[in-house]
Amino acid sequence: MPRSPRGRLFFANPGPTNIPDSILHAVAHHAVDFHDPAFMKMYDDCVAGIKRVLKTKQYMFMYTGSGHAAWEAALVNLFSSGDTLLIPETGNFSESWGRMAKNLGLSVQTVATPDWRRGVEMSAVKAALSEDKQHTIKAVCVVHNETSTGMYLPVDQIRAALDATKHPALLLVDTISSLGSLDFRMDEWGVDCVVGASQKGLMLPTGMSFTGVSEKAMDAHASSTLPKHYLSWTVMQGRKQQSFVGTVPVNFFFGLKESLRLLLDDEGLDEVFARHARLGEAVRRCVRHWSGNNGPQVYCSNPARESNSVTAVLMPEGHSAEAIRKTTKEKFNVSLGGGLSKLNGQVFRIGHMGDLNEPMVLGTLASVEMALRVNGVPHAAGGVNAAIEYLARGGGEAG
Ligand code: PLP
Fold first, then answer.
1. Is the peptide bond before 205 cis (omega within 30 degrees of 0)?
2. What is the pLDDT of residues 252-311, one digit of tens each?
3. Which residues, judged by CB distance below 6 Å to any ligand atom, belong to the binding site of ligand 1?
4. What is the dihedral of CA 16, 69, 97, 216, to 10 degrees?
5. What is the C-alpha to C-alpha distance for residues 152 and 148, in angstroms, rounded to an integer?
6. 210 C-alpha to center of ligand 1: Å?
7. Pocket test for ligand 1, best of 100, 177, 341 (most atoms within 8 A of CB)
8. How far apart are CA 212 and CA 215, in angstroms?
9. Residue 399 — very low, low, confident or very high, per pLDDT cuts 50/70/90?
10. For 338-373, how does the pLDDT look when each residue is reduced to its tens digit (9 = 90+)?
C-alpha cells in the first residue's frame, strides 16, 4: 500500500468546497497595494458582482474572517444589549448563531422545531410574531440553508409572516451554504441583513465573509450600542474601500474576480442553480434507493425543504455514520462531512455545492455504497444506478 493515497481527493464536504484550478491560480498573485487604482477598480467590480449574486442594490460590508465574523458583525452593528431576537430552530447553525447572540448580551427567543427532519413550521413563526404586541422582537434571524440537516428554509415565507403580522422586526438571513448555489433575492424578499462567506458556493478559500445591508438596517445601525470597532460599519464607511478595518486581503479579490466570472459570465446564475438542483436530486434519488432495504435515509423528510447544496444521510439504528466516513476516507480517498450537534454519529453529509459535476457526484456515491457494504450496513444495492438513470436524462422529472 502506498503511504499517501493515489488519485485526487474527492472532496464532498459541505464547506469548504472544491476550489477550481482557475481560482487557485488567480489567488496565487503577487501582492499589490490595496490603494492602487487598478486594484480599486477590480475591488469595486467585485463588490458589484457580489451584489448581483445577492440580488441587492443596497450596502455591502466585508470582513477578513470566516462566516462567524459576518454573523457577529450583523449582531453588533444592529443591536443593543438586551435586545430580543427571534430565531427559528433549524439545526446546528441556528443554535450557534443564537449562542453567539446570547454571549453578546442579546436575548434569544427560539421558535422550537420538535422534528428537525420536517423543519420549522411557518405557522409557529407567525404565531410568535403576532403574540409580540409590544414589538419587543427586534429581528428574526434565519438560516436559509441549514448545513447540518441538509434543509432549506423559504425566506419569502418568513417575509410573508412579518408582513402578515405587520411586525417591524428586521429580517436577518444566513446564506453561508446557499449563496452561489441556490437562488437568493435580498431586495425582493425584503431581507435587511444577509450573511455570506467565501468558502462554499463562491468556491474560494475560507477566510473572507460579508454582509449585505438594507437602508432600514442602516437606520437600526445608527442607534445600536453594542461595542464594536473591527467589525463596525461606521468605521468602515470612513475608509476608502467602505469595508475591512485594516489591510484588505488583496489575494481574495483576485480569486473573487475569477469566481464571479465563472458564476455570472461563464455559466450564469440560473444555470448554476439548475446544476445544483440536478446534482442534489441525483444524490437524493440514490439515497432513497438505498433506504429500500431498511438502509440509510435522506435526513430531510419534508420534500419542500430539501437542500440542493447538501444532503444529510441518516444511518439505520445501530450503525455509525463515522464508520462510513472513516472507510470512504481511508479506503477510497473520499472526504464526507460529519454529523453536527445532536446529529453527530447519526448522519454523514454529502456536500454538492460549488465546483462539481456529474462524475464527481457519482464517484462519491459509489464510494459511499462500497463503504455501506464494507461496514455491513443494510441497504438496497444499486442506488448509484438510480442517480445514473436520472443524470443520464439530464435531470428532469419524468421516469
Ligand atoms: N452558517 C452556516 C449555514 C454554515 O454552514 C456555517 C459553516 O459551515 C457557518 C454559519 C459558520 O461559518 P464559518 O465556519 O465560515 O465561520
1. no
2. 999 999 999 999 999 999 999 999 999 999 999 999 999 999 999 999 999 999 999 999
3. 15, 66-68, 93, 143, 147, 174, 176-177, 197
4. -120
5. 11
6. 12
7. 177
8. 10
9. very low
10. 999 999 999 999 999 999 999 999 999 999 999 999
C-alpha dihedral, 185 to 186 to 189 to 193, nearest 10°: 150
Q: Can you tell me the mean pLDDT for 231-259?
A: 97
Query: With 50 as the cut, is the pLDDT of residue 139 above it?
Result: yes
Residue among 129, 133, 65, 131 nearest 100 (CA):
65
What structural domains and CATH numbers belong to the chain? 21-265 (3.40.640.10), 269-392 (3.90.1150.10)
Total residue count of the chain as it appears in this document: 399
Residue 287's nearest CA partner among 150, 179, 111, 396 is 150
Q: Which residue CA neighbors atom 9 of ligand 1 most closely?
A: 67
Residues 6+ apart with CB under 8 A from 220: 78, 79, 138, 170, 192
Q: What is the CA(149)–ligand 1 centre distance, in A?
A: 13
Residue 217 CB coordination number (10 Å): 25
Amino acid at 206: T
**Confidence band (pLDDT; 50, 70, 90) for 397?**
low
